[in-house]
Amino acid sequence: MLGKLPSATPIVANRDKADPTCPSGTFRRVASRQKTDDFCFTPRTTPTPNPPLPIRRPSRAPDTTKSTMAARRALRSCTARSFRPSTQFAAQTCRRTFAASAVRCATTPTGNRETHFGYETVTEAEKQQRVAGVFSSVAESYDRMNDFMSLGIHRLWKDHFVSSLNPGATNPPGRPQRILDVAGGTGDIAFRMLQRAHEYNGNPNVHVTISDINPSMLAVGRQRSLSLPASHQSSLSFLEANAEVLPAAIEDNSLDLYTVAFGIRNFSNIPAALREAHRVLKPGGVFACLEFSKVDKYPLFNAIYKQWSFSAIPLIGQLVAADRDSYQYLVESIERFPSQEDFRDMIKEAGFDVAGQGYEDLTGGIAAIHRGIKPL
């Protein structure tokens, strides 16, 4: 039986013994009683084990709950300041530093922030350029394509949108009603506004400005306006402008009604556009938006609608306008646009009062009308 000796000490069997005839450091193994069977050997040693590594115990993470909550409160304050309307191209944004329990408002140049172009993630500047390319490409066929895309229903939606706003019905005698129709290039909404005010309400004291960032769309609108009655033409003007940074010519608290139909989903920075709408409207002025929306409340209808949108509309774009890619983007932009509830909340965050649920679904939610009122 082998006995365990201290570290680095030879392990020697009880039949093994030191022998002066063996080399130094070796022992003689007595294998049997026959002397001739004896032999010299080097004993096995047990190495000294390395000392154990120190055990690192995880340090307890600091409790950041209070500091995080403080940072969030500061963020809300910072955000409120940064949402103040500004005509600068650099919009204020807030950056959080929870580790230091600090929040600072910083100026981020417009164009460097990320947004979406359909399903692609791009910078705001790139989206603006690409959207401009899309609408320059489809300007001539845009209204015709809307008929194909919506099976003509968009005309009913627009008629209902304008009649619900009823321009020319409420402005006091002698005071003109000023309306800004944003992203209104081809004039579809503006012309209906003037017709409603002049012919239905008998009030010619209404002026509509068509604003669009795309000169090609404005050119189509100008050409179409030539067929309007002279009284309508005198109540109409055109303005090439970015809805996210409206020009100084549109002063603070100067408009009675701000409309945008099927355009806001193409903006690079929707919150900035909403803040600009709030800035230029008078207290009590109305923000009104008609936009494609969600039909999630009706799963079967939603499935059919999406199949139509993603399969038929790009194909129609190819056949009618020879431009499949532009209409593929338009479909994707509809899918990416916020839900009715989320967009309503964005309108509230811009400073508007919203009555009731804040929106009206059209055709099961394919489109929706949103309204906000600037507080008095």
In CATH terms, what is the fold-level topology of one domain? Answer: Rossmann fold
Percentage of residues in helical conformation: 25-40%
N-end to C-end Cα span: 101 Å
What is the chain-wise order of helices and strands? Answer: EEEHEEEEHHHEHEHHEEHEHHHEE
Number of helices: 11
The main sheet orders its strands as 10-9-8-11-12-14-13
Architecture of one domain, CATH level 2?
A: 3-Layer(aba) Sandwich
Q: Say which CATH homologous superfamily of one domain is assigned.
A: Vaccinia Virus protein VP39
Question: Count of DSSP E strands?
Answer: 14
Question: What does the radius of gyration come to?
Answer: 38 Å
Beta strand %: 15-25%
Mean pLDDT: 77
Q: Regarding CATH, which class of one domain?
A: Alpha Beta
Q: Per the principal axes of the C-alpha atoms, what is the gross shape?
A: elongated
Largest sheet: 7 strands, mixed
Protein structure class:
alpha/beta
**Low-pLDDT ranges:** 1-15, 32-36, 64-109
GO molecular function, one term: 2-methoxy-6-polyprenyl-1,4-benzoquinol methyltransferase activity
Function: Methyltransferase required for the conversion of 2-polyprenyl-6-methoxy-1,4-benzoquinol (DDMQH2) to 2-polyprenyl-3-methyl-6-methoxy-1,4-benzoquinol (DMQH2).
Family: Belongs to the methyltransferase superfamily. LaeA methyltransferase family.
Protein name: 2-methoxy-6-polyprenyl-1,4-benzoquinol methylase, mitochondrial
